[in-house]
Structure formats: structure tokens, C-alpha cells
Amino acid sequence: MSNEMLWIILMIVNFTFILLSYKLFGKLGLLVWSGFAIILANIQVLKTVELFGIVSTLGNIIYGTSFLATDILSEKYGKKEASKAVWIGFFALISSTLIMWLCLKFIPHESDFINESLVDIFSIMPRITIGSLIAYLAGQLHDVWAYHYWKEKFSKDSQLWIRNNLSTMVSQLIDSLLFTFIAFYGLFEIDVFTQILITTYFMKWLVAAFDTPIVYLAKKIDKPIFK
């Protein structure tokens, strides 16, 4: 199966789970998802693949769902709840990075077989985390602000797609520029770095474009199964 097909399947799976999270647990499900998504995205982003003929990193889909979560919260519960999701994600990333950094300081037993893999994954995370934290806050706080700004301009239900895309796509551009330069500049050759920068935004842009129907579906969900 090609990377492109797997990418599409992965996007469908992510959208399915975020809708399921909201259907099962309501607002709480989206708040939990915000913390979960940012942690997993920072692990996935360490893997580079070829998508549509150019170099890309993984993590763009699940990271994009964090913007989807705040857009749903903004639409249904207001700016305060959407901002809470942003800060939950911020806290989750800082705490998980610190905890894993301390875990790596333990001297492994001679029977250990996983420590080197953990070091490979999490030793680079402080740089990834710094880039992600700065980009995440700048992008997400802009997204929450922009969503409500555009909601005042395009307040009808039929115009939901306009406020969703205008807020998310600009926010994703801010996020992609900040994160890519802080996290990856100097780690890759310039041509690979440029491809990662372009594909990082392009993939997030695609996720933002395809998540619009998910916002409409979420808007129709009234009561979670587990209150």
C-alpha cells in the first residue's frame, strides 16, 4: 500500500476518532483529545516519509485535529472553552517532555532492550517541544481569536465552512513556519528542509480543508453518551 493511500486512511481514522471522542464524552472528550494529539504529533513528526513525490514528516494529521477540536469548541461552547483546550495541550506537552527526559536519566539494566530506541525518540524532543510550544501557542491562540472574529462576520450556519477555513488555514501557516524553523533548521540539508516546510503546511492545509464536514457533523451532536 502506498504512503499516499495510508495517509488518506490515517486522516479518516483520526477524524473518526475525534468525532467518536466527542460523541462519547462531549466537551470533555475534545479537551482530552487536545492534550493527546499534541503529544502524539510530536512523536510522529520525527518520522520522515515521501508523500506525493516530496519529503514530509508525519504528525500533520493528528496535529491538525487539535485545531479541529478548538474550532468545534469555539463553535459550540465559546472562546473560553476553546482557549482551555489550547492550554491543556500546552501543559500536556511540557509535562510529558519533562517526565520522559527524567526517565532517560535512569541507568538501564543489562537486560533492557528498549532504552536506545527511547533515547532516539525522546532525546530530540526538547528541541521539538520548544518549537512545538511556540508554534502551538501562536497558531492556536490565533485560531481561537480568528474563529470568533470571522464568526462575527459570517455568523450563519451555512457560513460555518468560511469561518472554519479562514481561521484554521492562516493559523496553520503561522504554526508551520515557526515550528519548522525552530525544530528542523540545521538538522536537514536545505533542499530537504524546504520540502519539509512546504509539505508541513500543505498537509495541514489539506487536513483543514477536509475537516470542514467534521465540524458540521459535530455541530449536530447534542448529548454525549457518557455525561
Automatic annotation (TrEMBL):
Cited Pfam families: Vut_1
Membrane topology field: Multi-pass membrane protein
Places the protein is found: Cell membrane
GO CC annotation terms, alphabetical: plasma membrane
InterPro entries referenced in this protein's UniProt entry, alphabetically: YhhQ
Principal cellular location given in the protein's record: membrane
Transmembrane feature ranges: 6-22, 29-46, 52-73, 85-108, 128-150, 170-188, 194-218
One GO molecular-function entry: transmembrane transporter activity
Keyword hit for Iron-sulfur: no
Keywords associated with the record: Cell membrane, Membrane, Transmembrane, Transmembrane helix, Transport
Coiled-coil regions listed in the entry: none
Family under the similarity heading: Belongs to the vitamin uptake transporter (VUT/ECF) (TC 2.A.88) family. Q precursor transporter subfamily.
Job of this protein: Involved in the import of queuosine (Q) precursors, required for Q precursor salvage.
Protein name: Probable queuosine precursor transporter
Organism in which the protein naturally occurs: Orenia metallireducens
